[in-house]
Design goal:
Blueprint lengths: L6 E4 L6 E4 L9 H14 L1 E4 L6 H11 L19 E4 L32 E8 L7 E5 H6 L3 H7 L3 E5 L9 H9 L3 E5 L1 E3 L6 E3 L6 E4 L4 H15 L5 E4 L6 E5 L3 E4 L12 E7 L13 E4 L6 H9 L1
Parallel strand pairs: 2-3
Antiparallel strand pairs: 1-2, 3-13, 4-15, 5-13, 5-15, 6-12, 6-14, 7-8, 7-11, 8-16, 9-10
Length: about 300
Amino acid sequence: MSNDVIEVQPLTLHIGAEISGVDLSQPLSDAQRTAINGAFLKWKVVFFRGQNLDHAAHVAFARQMGEPTIGHAVFGHIEEFPEIYSVAKFRTAQVNPAMKMAKPWTGWHTDITAAVNPPMASILRGVDIPPYGGDTLWTNLAVAYQGLSEPMRGIIDNLRGIHRFQAAADTGNAAYNERVKKRELETKHPLVTVHPETGERQLYVSPSFLKSIVGLSPRESEKFLELLWEHVVRTEYTVRFKWQPGDIAMWDNRATAHLAPTDIFASEFDRQLYRITLVGQVPTGIDGKPSVSLKGQPILAVETELSAAAS
């Protein structure tokens, strides 16, 4: 078998595949990178088992797939590696870790859709993994769009929604609220976007960040969004991944939403992952019109962000 050959094993009908036959600690060949990107676009989230990368190797792999952003546009990065954001059991971005899931879509999100150019991809690395619990789920927003009735698609095709980071209603996490106020992000995105590489239409309705639909009354907006959010998290559109130490998950942030269930907070187990996001472009609707920033600046490559912060 050629060293350039990788194997792709789908995990469900619509989303998720494991990739084997590649060592991510080494530079990828053009053929490997092309094959990985093809699987990434088709299956929306791809998994690499037992890679055991350190921070430097994580960054090196990410740079072969795109331009890393600052670790997190609002919540910063770890020391010495500005590309990496710590996804720990208890972290600033977790507003209320003891909260029970009030609704089926609570906690589901697409990364940083409050920005005008959300990341095109996220690359998450498992380090400290509980023996059970602490899984992650993803859903395919392109298949979810196709799963809507034709009349419903006709209604939402040209609607737009307001996405923002929003301070927590309770004051139990002052650090979260302070970070949100320091870098306000708010954007008007189409409810249906067109994927810049595949041409697919996807239902762009991140439950954690999408707050209202432009032009609808508050009550209309609330009920409409609940209908769409309930729809996108249907089990047939999702994959659930059980982590092992050293695993890597890379997902298309333009066409998925994901969830870390809160079951980990009912255990004494620790959970530590690290994430890198790649610079994305401004989404466009099916009318060809781009998203519009209402507050905040685009998410830039990490070098540009650091240079601007230093000046």
